[in-house]
Amino acid sequence: MDPSFVALTSSGSSEVVPPDDSDFSDDVLKFIDTILMEENMEEEPSMFLDPLALLATEKSLRDVIGEESSVYPHQNAESTDEYLISTSSEHSINYKTSSGNHVETTRDSSIDNSIGPMISSMSSHLVTNMFSDSQSILQFKRGVEEASKFLPSNNRLIINSESYTMPPASREEALEIVANTEKEERENSPKGSRSRKNHHHEDSDLEEARTSKFSAVYVRESELSDTLDKCPFWDEKVESTCCDSDEQVHSEKTKTTQPNAQQRGSKVKKTRAKKQESRNEEVDLVRLLIQCSQSVAAEDSRSAYDQLKRIRQHSSPSGDGFQRLAHAFANGLEARLAGTGSLLYAAQASKKISAAEKLKACQFYFLATPFRIILMLFANQMIADLVMNSSKKKLHIVDFGIQYGIQWPMLIKHLSSLPGGAPKLRITGIELPRPGFRPAEFVEETGCRLARYCKRYNVHFEYHAIAQKWETIKIKELNIYDDEALVVNSLVTFTSLLDDSVVEDSPRDAVLMLIRKMNPDIFVHAILNGSYGSSSFINRFREALFLYSSQFDMFDTTMARDDQHRRYFEQEIFGHEIMNVIACEGFERVQRPETYKQWQIRSMRAGFRILPLKQELVKKLRGKVKAGYHEDFAIEENGQWMMQGWKGRNYCASSCWVPA
Questions:
Q1: What class does CATH assign to 21-131+357-535+590-613?
Q2: Which of the residues 330, 392, 467, 604 has an alpha carbon 20 to 30 A from that of 215?
Q3: What is the pLDDT of residue 467?
């Protein structure tokens, strides 16, 4: 064993009641309470890392030392290898315990101070790190029924990405826009024709646009009307498509007694026709947003600003969910037009927001959705099953994007209750380096917290902290041993890794190949199921609009409209992400989700095969969602992936893999 590791052990034993999954939330909440009560937590910066913040830091250091080389690498293989050298560090934390219940932390660090560009930084997706405290959970559950009185009475936020497209336009205009889009992609592509090869499906869409009567982003007005009739947010009670006050009171019973979709669509069609006759100024924000994105893609600034002005008149950061969605997307469009997207995104990332402030804001996302808790339950159950069926007495978990480590207290508690005793637990926590002289400080603190938790439950514990770019990690740095049951864990943490449309050697594939070289017993992988990572701005905008419409609708349904934490989350987190998706390009666009099908292809190509879902586990988790959350949350299965979604739209997915 690596001599830098000193195990955490405790003498004596105590009888531990075997934990049940129902305790999971409480254990997580208590663990977060201990984090929030730590000294100086109000002053400490958040652990939610941002790749552009690291990129900006590296660039400023380059300026200080007088290097004139480009911030971004050239796109050939040789220059990529040269510029991959960046500020990085690897830290091992050594824990010692004594009978005095004292935990000492020492650090053996090796820091490479060579400064290079952050060309493939990875930041943990903010939407997926949601926390709560026990007090808030109890209050939330008790107040759901009463709080429903303040929820909006209509639901017009969910948008159908498959069919909601644009009103008609001339063939000449459509072809011109497509040509401009192709030109933009060629200019932004580092590899020319190769980049187009990597996005064959996008080229197919463009080719289809050339041969069709209308552009791929346009549709006949009759088709658009039919689509609107099918959209769930078009309710017969809606007075206007964007400007209603939403002051009516409703309850859950109202939802269950609504007419079926066909009847509702028929009524909506009649209602909309009447309103169009009486309201000549009625505005369709969805249509305006997509029209504006089309104008931006065509570099038609005059039309784009006119459309933005109309959008601004009917959007608001404090309005209903639909108006808030439009406000966030309008900000992104305006920044792209002005060419200030990267600056605004970096400025938001550099705000001095404390860890406590972000944790308290994120807890309301955790309260509103089961997404994160179900992802962790799925992963922990797969790990627990491995331990039960393995003859090895040591468990090694390599956690990409460990952050505060809130996933592990419940697993530690479960291991302590095993009949044959807990296996020796070793966790390798991997994060991006933080700017400054202690790049691994926060990931080290996570190890200290977990060590104290293991001490409480008499679990032998070792912790190894790594803070560097993930695709640069070497397998020897992970200290893997044959006598350990090895688990690799990644819960929606690969979203911001650059793909092969930006760099020739994809960091996503590099990390998957690294995991394959580890030869883990299981690889638990959860992803954000999004398709707005496309290099095509038009496609990316539309897909992002459809996905985030679900998120804003979810908040509008489960949270009070005037809640300050909700507003903070929508503006500072969702708004931050939307700004990056719409207004940034190249290396500066770090929000790059892929669908579960795309990740499945990558994983199989790396040498993995997916394990079948355990039906008992899926049934159990589905029951928890049904019992504890809003009825529109759902768990489905698709190709051995467990999907979580809202109102039929799949948001995230979990899977378990083994080497093929």
A1: alpha beta
A2: 330
A3: 95
End-to-end CA gap in the chain? 28
Residue appearing with tokens 């605004």 = 344
- For 494-548, the three-class secondary structure string (H helix, E strand, C coil) is CCCCCCCCCCCCCHHHHHHHHHHHHCCCEEEEEEEECCCCCCCHHHHHHHHHHHH
Quote the DSSP letter at residue 23: G
What's the CA angle centered on 364, arms 158 and 590, to 5 degrees?
65
The model's pLDDT over 600-632, given as tens digits with 9 standing for 90+, comes to 999 999 999 999 999 999 999 999 999 989 999
- SS3 assignment, position 10: coil
* Residue 645 neighbours by CB distance under 10 Å: 18
Q: Which residue has the higher pLDDT, 602 or 127?
A: 602
Helix/strand/coil (H, E, C) string of 416-441? HCCCCCCCEEEEEEEECCCCCCCCCH
pLDDT (0 to 100) of residue 365: 74
> What's 131-155 look like in SS3?
CCCHHHHHHHHHHHHHHHHHCCCCC
How many Å apart are CA 155 and CA 321, to the nearest integer?
Answer: 9
Q: Using CA atoms, how far apart are residues 465 and 615, in angstroms rounded to an integer?
A: 35
Strands 649-659 and 522-528: antiparallel
In residues, how long is the chain? Answer: 660
Q: How far is CA 72 from the centre of its chain?
A: 25
CA dist 610 → 426, 485, 652, 655, 659 (Å): 25, 18, 17, 7, 9
Q: Residues near 66 by Cβ (< 8 Å), separated by ≥ 6?
A: none
Domain ranges of the chain: 21-131+357-535+590-613
State how far the Cα of 635 lies from the Cα of 640, in Å rounded to an integer.
13
- Beta bridge pairs of residue 193: none
